[in-house]
Write a structure and sequence with these properties.
about 110 residues, mainly alpha, 5 helices
C-alpha cells in the first residue's frame, strides 16, 4: 500500500492514481506536474518500488500474465525512466521468468 502524507502534492496525486489502478491518469499527472521536479520525481520513484514488487509477486503466483507485467512496466518506465528501482524490478522479472521456465521443463 502507498502512504500519502498530504494533499495537493503532485507526486502524491500520481501515487494515488496508481493505487486506484488508473495508470494512464497517473502518467498524465506525472507528465504535467511532476516531470522536471527532482524531489517529486524521487517521491514517485520511491512510491513505485512497492507497486513494482506487487506486480512481480502477482506474476510469480500466476495472478497476472507476462503481457500485463510488460504493459505496466512500460507505463511506469515512461514515468521514472531506467532508475535503479526500475532496473532492479526488471532483473527480478528476468529471474522469475527463468525460474518459471525451469519449473515448466521439470513438470
Amino acid at each position: 500500500m502507498i502512504m500519502l502524507t498530504g494533499c495537493g502534492n503532485p507526486a502524491e496525486e500520481v501515487l494515488k492514481e496508481i493505487e486506484t489502478g488508473d495508470a494512464a491518469k497517473a502518467q498524465q499527472i506525472y507528465e504535467k506536474k511532476v516531470s522536471g521536479d527532482s524531489s517529486a520525481e524521487k517521491m514517485v520513484e520511491d512510491g513505485l518500488a512497492p507497486v513494482l514488487e506487487t506486480i512481480l509477486e502477482q506474476y510469480n503466483t500466476g495472478d497476472v500474465t507476462k503481457d500485463y507485467v510488460n504493459q505496466q512496466f512500460d507505463i511506469y518506465r515512461s514515468m521514472i525512466g531506467e532508475t535503479a528501482t526500475f532496473v532492479d524490478a526488471e532483473k527480478m522479472l528476468a529471474e522469475l521468468e527463468t525460474s518459471k521456465k525451469n519449473f515448466e521443463k521439470r513438470h
